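Reproducibility note. Readers wishing to regenerate the assembly model reported in the main text can use the exact inputs given here. Chain order matters: entities are listed in the order in which they were concatenated for prediction.
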Amino acid sequence: MSRDFDWPAFLFLLGAVRWTVLLSLIAVRGGAVAG
Amino acid sequence: MEATTAALIGMSLNFAGYGTEILRSGIDAVPRAADRGGAVAGLQPPGDLPHIIVFQALRTAYPALASQFVLLMLGSSIVAAISAEELTAVTNTLQSTTFRAFEFYFVATGIYLAMALGARLVLHALYWAVFERGQPVRATWAR
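Running the prediction on these inputs yields the following structure tokens for the assembly.
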């Protein structure tokens, strides 16, 4: 059974953005040190 | 090894490789005459490196490094393949449980676009603050 794309689902996606940005920033930091 | 750790190591090595090459090209782009200009100003070779070479190299390489960061951020979606938690992985999970693939991927695309534009805006502001603010207006031939 499918459910609609609702506001909580959107907020959940936005929460994942935080991890994406954090991963990228840490990777840049790590890359700068390694490079 | 946890998925997030593996993702971080992979992304760091990727950025290290590309970033180092970008910085190398930035250093290569600094004219050799800059050394002599530093000597005229009283700076000796090891000491002139941060003031003359590195600043110009960073200014030259910065736009490419900023683009590389945006690419890294967008390319982080690949780590969803190893179950690291990020936007694409969460989108995959949600669309598989709700069967609303189009809606979730459409919104995720919009979020990635917003992230890229936001990062570009922030990085451009940083470039202005570090390299352009307080600098004299550059001649058109020097651009």
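We highlight two features of this model. The two ends of chain B are 48 Å apart (CA to CA). Chain B has a mean pLDDT of 86.
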